[in-house]
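Two proteins, back to back. First:
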Amino acid sequence: CVVAGLRSAAGQPLNGHLAEVRGMDETSGRVCLRLSPRHEAARWKKVTPEHLRPSTVPLAGDDSDCSFCLERGDEVLVSPCLCRGSTGQFHLRCLLDAYEAKNQGVIEYPACPTCKHHYEGSLALMLMELKREA
């Protein structure tokens, strides 16, 4: 999903940020979001559902493995490029690790290492911002 209409505790806008829904907080009825693939549960944000909108990043099928780590794991797999079949399906954490390893010390517009398709919108924003923070 993509966050809309929120600011962080530090006052930074979160609009347009890609987030992974990790569950529901039963007591408050809020959705638990992970804004970074590296955030542990203590750093997840809890937001009301009206502050979320669907992401344009396509999700991979349930029967696929990540092209980088070759595992399924409990994280969502995304298919952000033009690669067909299982070669274009990644965990967000693996995608971030690959982007950082390829672009050490440089912030480039993120693209698939195989088909060279530039990642779009909120996914590209997430990768570039996390790289800048590192």
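And the second protein:
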Amino acid sequence: LSGPESTASRKSKCKSKKRQKKQKMKQERQVSPKSLEPTESSRPTLNPGLRSSEAVTPHSNFVKLQSFLAKEQENPGWVSRIERIMRSTKYDVSTGAIIMADVGLNWMDIDIRASGESTPTWLEVCATVCLVIYSVEMLTITLLRGRRVFHDGWFVLDI
């Protein structure tokens, strides 16, 4: 074989290998409905001595309930109570009221300072109380959720 013929034959071999690779990848991607069905050996059982007709397959809600209960059991009672309080509607409404009150207090403080007067003590105390409430809330959330809290956009915005 001469030089150009050997080059052409190498190119055709290379192309056929690429085609074979593509066909193999297509076959791997295609999944038949039968291959999705569990086999006898893949079905979970509570007791390995049971026959296949007696196998027990847990329902997805069962698994969710078990993971929820496990999470509830790993937290002490006071942690669960605080989490429940912080997820309640009353907590959301009271937090919103505190925020609105703080906005009003800041508004008053800005107006008083703009007029050249000094801020009254009661206004400074109320603003400090709001700051303490915000700080306690953020500290509590951080202690309950740990590092996961920094993946929450609203928490990061509050910081």
